[in-house]
Design goal:
By secondary structure, this protein is mostly helical. 69% of the residues lie in helices and 0% in strands.
Length: 354
Amino acid sequence: MPTVSILWADRIRNVSTIMVIAIHVAAPIAHVPQDLNSFWWWIGNFWNSLSRPGVPLFVMLSGFLLLGKDYPLPEFLSRRFSRVVIPALFWMIIYSVYGHISGNNPATVWDAIRNIIIRPVHYHLWFIYLIIGLYLVYPVLRPWIKAAGERDFRYFFIMSMIGAWGYKILAVYFNLPIGVYFELFTNNCGYFVLGYYLGTKGPAGVEASGLPSWRFSEKQLVLVGLALIMAGTASTMLGTYWLNSGWTPGANFDVYFYDYLTPNVGFSAIGWFLLIRFGWSAAPLHEVEKDFSAASFGIYLSHVLVMDWWGQCGYWHSGQHPLKGVPVLIGIVTLTTFLGVQLIRVLPFGKKIT
């Protein structure tokens, strides 16, 4: 996740990083409820729902930063993979050692190697496998992006909504799996292209990269963004409650609305992207934000260790009422992880692993 000089891009990366931390703090409360009608659960549900766009925003930002530029293929693959694979492997080893010490998992070096190949070593590292897959598809998408017009993008997004959103809804809740293989339009590729589209398309009267401008002004796009955030967050909260309205302790808890590939999370992510790009442009803390942005990948990789350490110190998601406990824990995990990564980055080769 390279740093850039565009303030709003730095800010999207920073907000996304904090959202991911918030998810990992609040999800244990939201996903493992004791009582759906308790204020305790609703606070966890709120923070979890508000933060769910974090991962889609990371993917969208990567799409904006990469798909608008031409890179020679060997240079692109070597630079991107070195920036992702080297730090990822380092932290996968760290988490493997951590898992072995804390729970004898993995039990052997071979188990550790096998785990790295077939699955995320730790629950949050699945994103590494996602971003590598998107890097591999970049050389295919970039020529199409250069030639694509508004109608082409609309077609791509419609197919992505069917492949990523519609297919799952029909298959899981209506027992109507679509027999067509959507291939390129499934999973996160839609977010990847959407990031380029939203980051390039200008407000009313401003055309960019051959795309017609929005019909809305910057202020109107900010209002659209706010509306999408509120609607997306509310529908995630209420939809999760509705799906589990008959839930009893010990029964399966349906987390469909928390999934990143859902309309509610997708529209909320679009809203955050529009809000930050067109409305959140003040720069009083820009220098700090640039440092935080540069450290964001290291923060993503290491924050779970920091969160676990704070848990050992007595600060964990259910250690106190989530009304104050969740935001406080998000804040201290974010701050201490940032400071720790900053310290690592001043060491020899520190930037290579963060």
